[in-house]
Amino acid sequence: MLCPTYTPSVYHFQTQKPVFRKQRFRVCSSTSGGENDRFKVEYTPWLIVGLGNPGNKYHGTRHNVGFEMIDVLARKEGVLMNTIQSKALIGIGAIEDVPILLAKPQTYMNFSGESVGSLASHYRVPLRHILMIYDEMALPNGVLRLQPKGGQGYHNGVKSVMGHLDGRRNFPRLSIGIGKPPGNMDMKAFLLQKFSPLEQKQIEEALEQGSEAVKTLVLNGFNQGISRFNLVQKYKFHKV
């Protein structure tokens, strides 16, 4: 018997069509031995946030790959992104038995922390279960890196998130490489530029790979599978 719910105000997940209730997220399991053998397992929910800018103007740009990863996760896990809360577009569902809250802040990149801080507080998600997904110029295009913590680098979205989490940095993050601006190209212009056909293909492949890594993280934490994932990503475009 599966009955995940969550505090203080969220959907009840006994069916595919969610019903709004005030409950706690929990998963109840039972054995075939009868009522006396019944046991309960509780899962801590994950808040998975993709950073980007809202609006068609920014769709498909380098700075919005965080949004695209959320779209892929929502599609693969059957999560409807149809609710606005804390200035974010959110969807609630589960990866297998683990409850997840997917979010795309609508505040524009530099103010993403307003949504993340509010959602984390409202749903009482611990820092270790707040996964931030964003673009990273320090990585080649299409290369991913999944880490348990890190700094803000030069990313204003991550800087805003850390500011609204009391300066704490011990939250997981999935960085999606978008490469560096060529020559003397302005950084802002580069971030708001769309990908070339080859780059877009690399990004699409990376999003599929990243969604599987997120699933592994949610179900098993930072295990050897994540270490192998990072190693493969590091050398994925190296020719032997």
UniProtKB/TrEMBL annotation:
Gene3D superfamilies per record: Peptidyl-tRNA hydrolase
Molecular function (GO) terms listed? peptidyl-tRNA hydrolase activity
CDD domains per record: CRS2 (cd02406)
Which keywords label this protein? Hydrolase, Transit peptide
Record's InterPro entries? Answer: CRS2-like, Pept_tRNA_hydro, Pept_tRNA_hydro_CS, Pept_tRNA_hydro_sf
Q: Which domain of life is it from?
A: Eukaryota
Q: Belongs to which family?
A: Belongs to the PTH family.
User: What is the protein named?
Assistant: Peptidyl-tRNA hydrolase
Query: Species lineage, top-down?
Result: Eukaryota, Viridiplantae, Streptophyta, Embryophyta, Tracheophyta
